[in-house]
Amino acid sequence: MTAPTPTTATGTPYGAGASDATTRPVAPVHTGSRASRVLGGLALGSIVLLVLYGLVWSPPDAEMADSVRLMYIHVPAASFLYTGCFITTVASALWLRRRTPGWDALAGASAEISLVFAAITLGTGSLWGRPTWGTYWTWDARLTSTALLTALLIGYLALRRLDVDPTARSTRAAVLGLLLVPNVIIVNRSVEWWRSLHQQSTLVKLDPTIEGQMLVALMVGFLAVGLVFTWLLVHRFRVAWLEYQSERLDLDLALVERRAEAGRASEAGRTPA
Amino acid sequence: MEPVVHLRAAVALLGRFPALAGIDLDVARGEIVLLRGPNGAGKTTVLRACAGLVPVVRGEAIVLGHDLRRDPRPVRRRVGLLGHDTGLFDDLTVVDNVRFWGRACGADPAEIAAAMALVGLDGRLRDVSVGRLSAGQRRRTSLACLLARRPELWLLDEPHAGLDHETRDQLDVLIGQAVEQGATVLLASHELDRAESLAHRVVELAGGTTVALPTHASGVSQAEVPASRTPEQEAPAPSSPEVTHVA
Amino acid sequence: MWRDAALVAGRDLRVELRSRVTTNQVAPFSVLVLILFAFALDPDRQLLERLASGLYWTAVLLAALLAISRSAAIDEADGVRDALRLSGLDPAGVFVGKAAAVAAVLLGLEVLLGVGVVVLYGVELAGAGLVVLAGVAATVAVAATGTLYGALVSGLRVRETLLPLLLLPVLAPVLIGATRAFEAALAGVPADGWPWCGLLAGLAILYSVAGALAYGTLLEGS
């Protein structure tokens, strides 16, 4: 069984000895590595850049005034939310095909990070709504479908938490995960179509001629949010992988213990009846 | 002649628990073999593994010519499993249940009716809801569903439990008839007296493995002997003329 | 596969008929929901009549949760899963049969609720063609989706609570589509409703195929 052992740029494998069923892996104390530290540094740097561009260097929008600055987080957050769902679905499909635990861990990790980003999307959208529409919630297409998507993710994560045989749990979660992207697409299209009947302007009508500092701020937003997403995903995946390693069956050890029951039974049998 | 069941050092997992930790078992056509052992020894799992329901992860497992490690599914249609649980729908009548399971595995109405007649369910019990039957009557209904399948290998998990004497006798007769018609029977039971007189051979299980049986006064049985037996354990000498040596 | 589906559908329907849970419990519950809506919205007839389509489909969805739960419970009985695996029944056929049985039960409930809405909310029927086709498409979509998700939570202790959480977000588009289609029909503008009917038909086909493909995996892997 070949599992996708996560190795870092320097080649330190996690779950050392993963392919050797008889030795227990030595668990690292943390899930950091040189590559993830570089990634984290870049993410931090880009967040600083985003703050600068978003809050200081870019001008307020003609229509939306300063609240447009929320868009520099809101739009990328939504994009990476969809990316995370996509990763979960693809990982679920690959698990069903290959049955290697790494894919299952990736599917679960991606869903959790996506839920965080769903909260961010809803939060920034809601905050944007207050000064613009006067209310915290508007039945706008994006917010509504994001809310439904949040429910889908919560349901998926609830299924993953079940206390059943791990293979059964992974199978059910994988089938559900496989349906995630189709559900997202269907929900999005239906809700947009529905809201468009009432000609509500969508939350983000980014002027296609957006240019200058605002465009740069948006690009920096994508960069920063993307790096944070990736960093979170890497760490969450590693934690899941370590969890899997610690629970993994050491078959030969279990067989020895099981057979020992036979020894005890024949001991009992040998005493004079 | 190829054995109907051939297990060698078979390991099977229930989740993370190795229910079978090394089973050696050969059953020839027409044999009745009794699996004996303490609770938790793996008797039920051996039966379910032979039915292709529990995957075998190590060792050899060939039942009715099908390699269970490669694909356990083809063997399922050819075996009949009578388990602890009944596999019946409480809201439906006896005849509805037998008809459903019979037609599900391709039996025609004549075979279904015959199966019900064999267990004595074609009388007043025919249209009673299964939920209102006694344990013995439910067992008979499950047995009818098994008979309708005409399986080549019968896998019976404590079939006598909860039945009255008369029903147990009837069951033994049915088992005998099935064997005469070419079926093979593997059963697990705690009803030792009855099962041992019924069986051609007894195999002892403990800790998920087949073990050697120390001789005792009744002198019953020849069991599989594992490769790692200690000098103190001797192969028991069979004294009953019904007992056959393991090949 | 079709033979197996017919066998399983017959079994599920027979169980429902014998136990009478649908007629004695689910049907009254669904009518009760309609009545509760009236309490919540104040029986100002105008309001209820305007909202009738949405309220109707909400009541249908709530009743569907019960019907799907019952359908899943049939195969959770002792030893039935093992027996299904041993029987040689085509899992896709089992899925189609179960979904068909759920659809039949739902259609019955929908007719009852339709009468309820006409009587209680003062709705006037119109656009019968659209109503029937959209209703059938929505019913098949709900039944297929529900049977698949029912299998996902089958056998779990938390089935009762997990099923609504998983199923309702997925059925939201069905609710949207069915309500819009019915509104268009009742308002006498069926042209607006046919596209939504198309959406419902698409969902019905999608989930029927998905369920047929996935049922075997779930039967084995759980």
Structure notes:
The complex is a heterotrimer of chains A (273), B (247) and C (222). Chain A has 273 residues and is mainly alpha-helical. Chain A is 70% helix and 0% strand. The longest helix of chain A has 35 residues. With 247 residues, chain B is α/β, with parallel strands linked by helices. In chain B, 29% of the residues lie in helices and 24% in strands. Chain B has a six-stranded mixed sheet, sandwiched between helices. In chain B, strands 2-1-4-5 form a four-stranded antiparallel sheet, with helices on one face. The two termini of chain C are 22 Å apart. Chain C has eight helices and no strands. Chain C is an all-alpha fold. The longest helix of chain C is centred in the last third of the chain and has 32 residues. Chains A and C meet through α4, α5 and α6 of A and α7 and α8 of C.
Relevant terms:
heterotrimer; A: 273 residues; mainly alpha; 8 helices; elongated; disordered N terminus; C: 222 residues; 87% helix; globular
SSE arrangement:
The complex is a heterotrimer of chains A (273), B (247) and C (222).
Chain A: H1 34-57, H2 71-98, H3 101-133, H4 141-160, H5 166-178, H6 180-196, H7 213-247, H8 251-270
Helix pairs in contact in A: 1-7, 2-3, 2-5, 2-7, 3-4, 3-7, 4-5, 4-6
Chain B: E1 5-14, E2 17-27, E3 32-36, H1 43-50, E4 56-63, E5 66-67, H2 73-76, E6 79-82, H3 94-104, H4 109-118, H5 135-149, E7 153-157, H6 165-180, E8 184-188, H7 192-198, E9 201-206, E10 209-211
Parallel strand pairs in B: 3-8, 3-9, 6-7, 7-8
Antiparallel strand pairs in B: 1-2, 1-4, 4-5, 9-10
Chain C: H1 2-19, H2 21-41, H3 45-74, H4 80-87, H5 91-121, H6 128-152, H7 159-186, H8 190-221
Largest interface: A-C, 29 and 24 residues
Strand content of chain A: under 5%
Series of secondary-structure elements of chain A, N-terminal to C-terminal: HHHHHHHH
How would you describe the shape of chain C? Answer: globular
> If helices are DSSP runs of H or I spanning 4 or more residues, what is the number of helices of chain C?
8
Find the count of extended strands of chain C (DSSP E, 2+ residues). Answer: 0
Based on CA atoms alone, the radius of gyration of chain A comes out at: 24 Å
Main beta sheet of chain A, described?
A: none
Helix content of chain C: over 70%
Average pLDDT score of chain C = 91
What global shape of chain A is seen?
elongated
What value does the average pLDDT of chain A take? Answer: 79
